[in-house]
Structure formats: C-alpha cells, structure tokens
C-alpha cells in the first residue's frame, strides 16, 4: 500500500487549468490517508530494512464514524503500521480543525503506539464554555456526558480507560446498552448513584431519572491514584525490565529511568486553532505541516496505486449511521 515517495508525495501536480498547491490536490480521502502516514516518521526503528520472506497482506482492521484503519507494511523497514484513511476531511471547517489538531498531537507526543485520538482536545478550564457531547463511543461514555453535561474534564478519559480495562479482564464489553438511558441504568446498577455534587452539571431531567432509582454510594478513582495502585506494580516492573525504551542494559546490569510516569513538558498548545478561519486556510496549513514532517532523515511515504489492495483501500468507508451507537440523549 505504501511506497517510498518524492519530497511532496501527498499533493500531486495540478491538472491543466488548475492552480498549484493543496487546492488542486488529489481526492480528500487519499490526501488524508497519506497525511496519516506521517505517523510512521515517529517510529524509532532501525534504518536498515528487514528481509521478510512472507509479507502480511495489507488489510482493514477497523472503522468508526470518522475513519477506516488499515494494517499495512512500511516498505522502509518491513514493520507493520496503522494507516488511517479519513474521508471528507475538507468538508467543513470543523472537520479540518479536527484532523489538523490530531496530526499536531501525534507529532507532538511522538508515541509509537498512539494511532489516533478521535475527538481529542486539551482540557477546557472555563466552565462557562459549552463542550460537545458527541464524544466517546457510547459503551465507554462517562455518566456526566450521558446525563447531558455541557462541561467535563479529563475524568471522562479515566472512565473510558476503566471500561476498557474491565473489558480486557472480562472478555466482554462492560456496559453494552442499546440506548443512552439504558447505558446510564447499567452503570448505576453496578457502580451506584452519583452524588449530587457529581451531578451538578447534569440536566434536570437526567438528575430526576437517577434520583428515582435506589441510592448507592459511588466514587471514581483519579488518574494519580490509579497509577499508584499496587495492581500495576508487577506490570510496570515487567515493562521496564525488558520492553521499554526509557531504560537500558549495561554490562553491570539494568539502568532504570528515574521517572516511571513522565510528564510532558511543555504542554501541548492548542491556541493555533483560534487563527483558523477557513477550509482553504487549513488545507494550506496541513500541506505545509506535512512537508515539514518530511524533512527528517527518513524517506517520505506515499500511497501506491499499483498495490493489490489499492482499490479496496480507496473504496473502504466509515461506519454507516445504522452501525453507530445512538447519539447523546436530549434530556430537555
């Protein structure tokens, strides 16, 4: 699917009569898929290609509301990487901003195992500013969002992590409901009733629904407490003994990092979004951003039209509305 490309592989030359630059680029889904391939720039693998007798075929491995994820081979080193195709990137200003924000975050954190953030954003400290409720797949959606809260914190991420962790242990989705109300009922049945303080930002209709049920005490763990829990000690020790990149071995033994839970410094800055005012502007900025990412030591990549999987890749699409969980309930 991927080929080593020229310096500008994602934006081919314009046809006669077209202006040069991103406005004359290939179809949006191809651009976005190729742009997503910039993630491979952050893999700190060996620069020497590995010989593989049996190369695994490129194939789709999942899809959602905003994109399709494929498992493909990086031709530069033979490693398997995730390639995400996002159609309709330039459909409107909101979708443009979302994709650019996620590309910026991927390149900022430089983490090998992060493929995509979905609707990632920095924490909004101003509680007077309303935040979208169209976040997180319903099965992993925190109670405050299910109850119509217009402002939330990074605690919703802790909730999602907890749901996924329980799913890994139980081999099934923890709260698999058919509607937002049923989702909320499953949560309170297992974990108890949120306190009035926890429900202070919820809609009145949602509060009334919860308070009609039997009361059970409930409390959510913080990220700091979760990371300090003894349950993680063995896994953390195993990871830093043989799998991590922050520790290393010497002839005298293993040298461990002094900070097992490092904090990113400086923090990600999202103020650039305030200056994005048009689709064309964001298209130009994304184009320049991708070119900047290609200035590293590695050969840039492009989509290979001759690949056996190319037609399937181009025709692959996002989840249909009937396949997606219901949108957040309008309580009032």
TrEMBL record:
Q: Which residues bind ATP?
A: 84
Keyword Transport belongs to the record: no
| Residue span, Protein kinase domain | 1-232
> Sorted alphabetically, which keywords does the UniProt record give?
ATP-binding, Nucleotide-binding
Molecular function (GO) terms for this protein are:
ATP binding; protein kinase activity
Q: Where is the composition biased (Polar residues)?
A: 1-10
Coiled coil region boundaries: none
Q: What protein does this entry describe?
A: Protein kinase domain-containing protein
Q: What is the lineage of its organism?
A: Eukaryota, Metazoa, Chordata, Craniata, Vertebrata
């Amino acid at each position: 699917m991927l080929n080593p490309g020229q310096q500008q592989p994602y934006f081919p030359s314009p046809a006669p009569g077209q202006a040069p630059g991103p406005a004359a680029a290939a179809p949006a889904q191809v651009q976005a898929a190729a742009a997503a391939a910039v993630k491979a720039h952050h893999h700190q693998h060996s620069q020497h290609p590995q010989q593989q007798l049996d190369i695994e075929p490129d194939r789709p491995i999942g899809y959602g509301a905003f994109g399709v994820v494929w498992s493909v081979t990086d031709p530069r080193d033979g490693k398997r990487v995730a390639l995400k195709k996002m159609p309709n990137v330039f459909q409107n200003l909101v979708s443009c901003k979302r994709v650019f924000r996620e590309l910026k975050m991927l390149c900022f954190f430089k983490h090998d195992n992060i493929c995509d953030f979905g609707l990632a954003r920095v924490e909004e400290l101003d509680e007077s500013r309303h935040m979208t409720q169209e976040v997180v797949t319903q099965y992993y959606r925190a109670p405050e969002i299910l109850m119509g809260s217009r402002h939330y914190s990074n605690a919703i991420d802790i909730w999602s992590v907890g749901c996924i962790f329980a799913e890994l242990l139980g081999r099934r989705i923890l709260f698999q409901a058919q509607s937002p109300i049923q989702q909320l009922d499953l949560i309170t049945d297992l974990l108890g009733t949120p306190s009035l303080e926890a429900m202070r930002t919820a809609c009145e209709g949602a509060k009334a629904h919860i308070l009609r049920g039997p009361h059970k005490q409930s409390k959510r763990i913080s990220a700091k407490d979760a990371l300090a829990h003894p349950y993680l000690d063995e896994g953390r020790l195993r990871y830093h003994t043989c799998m991590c990149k922050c520790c290393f071995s010497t002839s005298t033994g293993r040298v461990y990092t002094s900070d097992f839970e490092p904090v990113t410094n400086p923090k990600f800055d999202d103020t650039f979004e305030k200056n994005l005012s048009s689709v064309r502007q964001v298209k130009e900025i994304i184009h320049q951003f991708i070119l900047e990412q290609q200035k590293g030591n590695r050969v840039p990549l492009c989509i290979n039209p001759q690949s056996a999987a190319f037609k399937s890749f181009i025709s692959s699409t996002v989840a249909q509305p009937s396949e997606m969980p219901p949108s957040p309930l309008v309580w009032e």
